[in-house]
C-alpha cells in the first residue's frame, strides 16, 4: 500500500479535475485580456494623439509616453502599458491598429504588416493648417471625428486670442529668433516658425546653426528659447552667453514643439507678447 508524505494529502480524481478546470479558466482569462484589441503606439507623436483623442482605445504606448519633457500628455499616460518597438512584443498584444511614424521601427512595421496587423502612419505637421488636416485624419482613423473637431476648436480659440485686436498688441510684429541648443535656428517651414508667426512675431531664422556673432549681428527683438533641462549642458551654453543678455527672452516647453498637434497652440500662447 502506497503511503503519502507527512503533511500532504493524496489528490483524488475530482480535486485534480477541479484544479485543471481552474487553470484552464485562468489561461482563458489571460488570453482574452491579451486579445482585447485596441491601438498600440510605436511613436511619441502617436502617444500624444491617442491620449488626446481616444484614451479608452489604448492597448500600449511607447516608453517615452510619461516623460513630461517630451510628451504633452505625460500626466495622462499614467500606468498605461508600455511596449518596445519589437514585433513579438507587439504581436503578443493582438492590437487592432498600430500607429507609427513615417520613420523608425520600419522593420518592425513590415513584420507586423506581414502578420496582417493594420498599420497607420502619422504625418508630421509643420504648420497649423497641416495640424488641422492631420488631427481630422487621425480622429477619423480612430472613429472619433467629433473629438478631433473639439480639439481643433480649442486650438482655434487660443489662436484667435493671439491675433491683433484681441488684446495682444504690445510687441506685435517684433523680429523673433527661435534659438535651440548648439545655435540651431528654426527654418521657414519649421513648426517653431509657424508658432512664432501665430504669436505675432516675424521669424528671422533660416534653419541653420548660427554662431554667437551671427545672432548678435541679426539684432532680433526677441529670443525664443526652449526651456532648459534641469542640468548643465555644453549644448545650451550659447543660449546664456553674456552677449545675448540685452535681448529679451521668452521660453517655450519643448514638448509642445516635438509633435505638431492641437496642443501646439499653447506654445504660441506661452511666447505671445503680454
Quick rundown:
With 274 residues, the protein is an alpha/beta fold. Helices cover 39% and strands 10% of the residues. A 4-stranded parallel β-sheet has the order 2-1-3-4, sandwiched between helices.
Note the topology.
Elements: H1 13-34, E1 39-41, H2 44-53, E2 58-60, H3 74-77, H4 87-91, E3 97-100, H5 106-114, E4 119-121, H6 128-141, H7 145-161, E5 175-178, H8 191-198, E6 202-203, H9 212-218, E7 222-226, E8 249-252, H10 255-258, H11 265-271
Parallel strand pairs: 1-2, 1-3, 3-4, 5-6, 5-7, 7-8
Helix pairs in contact: 6-7, 7-11, 8-11
> Which CATH class of the largest domain?
Alpha Beta
In percent terms, what proportion of residues is strand? 5-15%
- Structural class comes to alpha/beta
Helicity level, as a percent range?
Answer: 25-40%
Strand order of the largest sheet: 2-1-3-4
Number of strands: 8
The number of helical elements comes to 11
How is the quaternary structure best described? single chain
CATH-level-2 architecture of the largest domain = 3-Layer(aba) Sandwich
Indicate the low-confidence ranges by residue numbers: 1-11, 13-36
Amino acid at each position: 500500500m502506497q503511503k503519502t508524505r507527512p503533511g500532504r494529502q493524496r489528490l483524488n480524481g475530482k480535486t485534480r479535475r477541479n484544479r485543471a478546470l481552474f487553470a484552464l479558466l485562468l489561461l482563458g482569462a489571460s488570453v482574452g485580456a491579451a486579445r482585447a484589441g485596441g491601438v498600440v503606439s510605436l511613436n511619441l507623436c502617436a502617444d500624444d494623439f491617442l491620449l488626446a483623442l481616444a484614451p479608452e482605445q489604448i492597448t500600449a504606448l511607447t516608453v517615452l509616453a510619461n516623460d513630461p519633457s517630451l510628451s504633452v500628455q505625460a500626466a495622462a499616460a499614467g500606468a498605461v502599458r508600455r511596449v518596445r518597438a519589437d514585433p513579438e512584443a507587439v504581436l503578443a498584444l493582438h492590437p487592432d491598429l498600430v500607429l507609427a511614424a513615417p520613420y523608425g521601427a520600419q522593420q518592425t512595421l513590415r513584420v507586423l504588416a506581414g502578420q496582417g496587423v493594420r498599420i497607420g502612419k502619422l504625418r508630421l505637421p509643420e504648420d497649423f493648417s497641416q495640424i488641422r488636416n492631420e488631427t481630422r485624419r487621425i480622429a477619423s482613423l480612430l472613429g472619433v471625428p467629433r473629438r478631433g473637431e473639439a480639439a481643433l476648436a480649442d486650438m482655434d480659440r487660443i489662436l484667435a486670442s493671439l491675433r491683433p485686436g484681441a488684446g495682444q498688441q504690445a510687441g506685435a510684429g517684433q523680429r523673433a529668433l527661435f534659438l535651440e541648443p548648439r545655435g540651431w535656428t528654426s527654418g521657414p517651414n519649421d513648426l517653431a516658425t509657424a508658432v512664432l508667426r501665430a504669436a505675432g512675431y516675424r521669424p528671422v531664422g533660416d534653419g541653420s546653426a548660427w554662431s554667437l556673432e551671427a545672432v548678435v549681428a541679426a539684432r532680433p527683438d526677441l529670443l525664443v528659447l526652449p526651456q532648459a533641462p534641469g542640468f548643465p549642458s555644453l549644448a545650451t551654453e550659447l543660449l546664456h552667453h553674456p552677449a545675448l543678455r540685452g535681448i529679451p527672452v521668452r521660453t517655450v516647453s519643448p514638448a509642445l514643439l516635438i509633435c505638431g498637434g492641437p496642443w501646439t497652440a499653447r506654445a504660441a500662447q506661452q511666447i505671445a507678447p503680454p
